[in-house]
Amino acid sequence: MPEKEFIISQATRVVAEDFRNNILKNATEILQRDIQKVTTQKESDNEIYLTVDDHAAVEGDDFQINQSTDSRITITAKTSLGVMYGALAVSRNILKIDDFWYWMDTVPSVQKSIKWTNFDLHIPDYRTKYRGWFVNDELLLRGWKDHDSDRYVWNRVFETALRVGCNVIVPGTDVSSQINRNPAKSFGLAIAQHHAEPLGAKMFAREYPDLTASFIKYPDLFRKLWRDAIMDQKGTPTIYSLGFRGQGDKPFCEDDNSREWNDQSIADVVNGIIQEQYDMVRELDPEAPMALNIYGELAGLYRKDLIKVPDDVIEIWADSGYGKLVSRRQNLDNPRLPLLDVPNPHHRQRGLYYHVAFHDLQASNFLGLLSNSPEFVSSELTKAHEKHFDTLELVNTGNIKPHVLYLREAAKSWIDGYQARTNDQILDDYVANYYGSHQAEIVSLYKRYWQAIVQYGSHSDETAGDEFAPFMIRRIIKAWVGHREKMSDTGWVVGDVSLPEAVKKIDGLIEPKLPEWQSLVLDIKKLMLDLSEQDAKTLYGDLYLSVLYQANGLNAMHLVIQAYNLSMAAQKDDDYLKPFLLADEAYHAMSDIVFAQDHHKSTKWYDFYKNDGYDDMPLTAIKLKFLRHYLRTLGDTEDEDAWERNYIKTPGEARVMTLWTTSREMSDDHLAKKLREKLIDKL
């Protein structure tokens, strides 16, 4: 019997049974686009037909592919989502479109046409029932457009989520989630909700800006927001999130001074709200699943047996923010309570909220790679699945592009039979997929990233991500220039100590790692010269920037600490000259980060980092520029001409020079450059 075959070419049309079905419409457009990408020639006039059939011989969201005639392939499923998965399976397995093509700028192999013979494609056997992305802290995505459209960008978010196997998404935070909810549904994704936005309701403070966000004072206003949210989503695939947190994702009692709060009184309010929300969903959308995020303060209350949860609600437990399956540190409170040993006497289904990106304005990773290794993440996810925390898994994606390595591995972990993988296994697989040459060298460079990471705490997972350096730099400057005895918000790393003691401790953590980071920067730069243009672009965006954040950020902090120590010991004006030059170096180190972001090797990503309000490298550069001038103000004259006269001008010129007969004083940039030239041997 001759082998069945189907020729995919520019002449192949993708059509849907019902274009009123937005999910089928989007599936059609994606597959048609991908066919146009990878084929160049028109051959047989044929079609790929997408249809939903209640009688399809598959279960759940699986699909079947049949060659119904020589000129027609039919992709059939019982659900629209199943058809979408089928279209994407063709894209992935037959057309060879990478799941993260958009974020990694992968270029598919182009052919005249493609001979398709293997029609036995299926979704993987997933052990995780609800698999989702939590697109959170998405400042970069909010501030960026592609094809002059933010909708185009978010559509690629939804497409990628589906490609890796998601069936659930939290489509952003606050306003973003409201805007993106229906578009996400049009791709086939069920909607889950941010733990600070129960039921997907609008934030109280946004709707009622003049009122205190107190359920005690305004219960009916909260109830209206909840009911409106359910009515807006009822009848569509939704996993309702129950619970109650304060505005801006903090304990609600911080917004509510209506009483003195203790554990029991907090629990009483939360329990009452959970029951009200549960009853409201059962009334308005009776078949919908519900989940409770046991996050932040709720974790401690639950362990004290103070939180009451209906038995058919899925419990979602969260990692530390750094990937470790222990409770999250909140300020100085860091009990590190293990997640996986919490008793489950009611045998509730459990899930996991896991971070491969995190923002805590302290030491987390926002712009770059997670500071704990892929091997570490793989191990933690495997432990969670072994303990059956796998009914629902939400992976915090941040802004997706900086975190592809981890998002890819997390998606693999959802598949039945997944076992923890080593760094070698993960990186060999990853690099082979995204780089065409020098693969062993590139694997080595990735490994060196985690070897160079600063460990700020006593636990192996307490490692410093890209937020660490700019966070600390800004607080050192604030305390120093503000003549404060201590830095703010840093007790978690230095304890309750004076500013001099704090900077000494911080410098002791970072200084030994500086040579490793500088060496890694240089080695990546060298290798990029030998790579193809495509591979160089990939390495630049996926690893080089992550390394630069660490190398230049930590170096800038070290320089600031040196400048501080010398400044504190200054006895005369000229003793501020070297601190001035050190601050200048720190400023340029941070400015180089901003320049590297703005001049990405791929022009597509030039503006991607513009809305970074977390690491905020531009603000940190501004603070360092201010510090530089502050030190000049301390050491130079009121007219800022003494250093220029004494160290740059010739003796004769310096004696007769007056600012009003020659030229203005030098700028800080110009002065620093000239001072460094003149004093290089002495410095």
UniProtKB/TrEMBL annotation:
SUPFAM superfamilies: beta-N-acetylhexosaminidase-like domain (SSF55545). The keyword rRNA processing does not apply. Keywords: Hydrolase. GO terms for biological process: carbohydrate metabolic process. InterPro entries: GH115, GH115_sf, Hex-like_dom2. Pfam families: Glyco_hydro_115. One of its GO terms (molecular function) is hydrolase activity. This is Glycosyl hydrolase family 115.
